[in-house]
Model the fold of this input.
Amino acid sequence: MASPDWTNALYFGDNLNILREHIPDESVDLVYLDPPFNSKATYNILFREKSGEESAAQITAFDDTWHWDLGSEAAYRDVVANGPVKLADLLQAMHAFLGRNDMMAYLTMMAQRMVELHRVLKPTGSLYLHCDPTASHYIKLLLDGTFGAQNFNNEITWQRTESHNTADRYGNVADIIFYYTKTENRTWNRQFHQYPNGEQKYSDKQLKRFRHRDPDGRVYKLDDLTAPRPDSDSGKFEWRGTTPGPSRGWGYRLEQLEAWWDQGRIQTKRDGTPRMDGLKVYLDDTEGKPLQNIWTDVPRIANTSPERLSYPTQKPEALLERIIASSSNEGDVVLDPFCGCGTTVAVAERLGRRWIGIDITHIAIALLKSRLHDAFGDDLSPYTVIGDPKDVESARALAVESEHDGRYQFQWWALGLVEARPVKERGPDAGIDGFITFFDDESGRAKRIVVQVKSGQVARADIATLKGDVEREGAEVGLFVTLGEPTEPMRREAAAAGFYEPEHFPGQLYPRIQILTIEALLSGEARAEYPRMAPPATFRRAPRRRRAEGSQGALG
Ligand SMILES: C[S@@+](CC[C@H](N)C(=O)[O-])C[C@H]1O[C@@H](n2cnc3c(N)ncnc32)[C@H](O)[C@@H]1O
Done:
């Protein structure tokens, strides 16, 4: 359960370093990872220049093409020399088969991270690795090498879309999710598929198996309590005088069997010992069908869905809800080392888990911060952001470092500082970088703050432009976030814009144009001033959620 000295954490940086430097051994209950796939895709976020042109160099959120370079060579040697023996052997075999190519670079970087993820998992912990058929066959071998083949539990096929338009082969509509655990003694909460659309739980053929009746009239079928175990010792114990046959084991853990025994759910033989096919399943049981390893009922996020944050490869919350509910309990620690815009983190927060998110791009971190802020408002558990610039010097270094990408990394980071959401597309004459929205009345109509970020020279004309942007956008407030010190004429220009006075809070005055320096924001001396009495919500706001509101009912 949650310990008092725990704080949820969002790390900016390469997950390999962060895992090695910050995450202790056996400290995590559940890992979900959705790494970039090596499908040679470049995930762009479509930004437009002020001219309306697409901006070429500045729009890559991340790409998933891995190349064999000196870094891969070093990583390969690291795993072969220091990794678990089986993994090292495997990687060498793959190296012999694949050579030094992009796929091998990808697998090597994954192998390195798998070793760390295995280390940080508790003995009862689980790992779900989300990938696609491009590399899933190699990934499964690597997971066997790291976790041991006996700790493989499922290969889940998620049908992520209805159809894929491929003329010359079958449409590729499936993602693969591997489910491994560290040991057999793992956290597991069986999940059930619900039938919200009047679907029938059992087929006609299955219905024929309900041919038994209890003295109270309840109709039931008998299911097997054992499972094939030709090559493992799993489930091979004596229970109430019965031991499964040589190539079989009990399909359930002892506690589960005992619970069913106490509930009278086990059919016995004449001598009072359990029948191996003796699990009574009642026809009128309201519980849905246990989830299987093919998931066709989690649709992709629709373009119009409020959940959509326009982050490439964003996964549906329903998918993570299922995984987190199955393999963790309230208060457990959930880690997503490739967290993107934070689907895992948002669901973990909602289901009352503790969480750690890691990502290497500032746009992911900025989106995640605004997502949490929007979805949970004041209910959000405290969290720290680690690896982001913490002083003006490092902020300046980030601005210089991101020269090559038009200073987008800096801009995204600065937007995250004020919990603003980056603007995706800019109109031909709009220079707005981000938005914050807030509510200050009961009408449900969101009010807007437009945000401009500047890392270079600033002048009075910038404030005049922002004023124009505020008017054109019909926004209530304009926020000017600057790395450099504002000049006196800038301050005067801002002051001349007057105040925003909410209709429902007469007398409360908020400057229409606010200049915030990065230094003042970092030191906590200043923050954006706007009505905060009602929960704020940003543009394309994440649906507001209460913690631990998720339930099985939401899964079907
Ligand atoms: C496929 S996306 C994950 C999307 C996520 N599941 C979601 O729902 O938003 C992969 C993410 O991994 C991040 N990433 C790539 N390499 C990384 C690394 N070495 N360390 C940390 N994050 C990394 C990318 O920036 C990207 O956000």
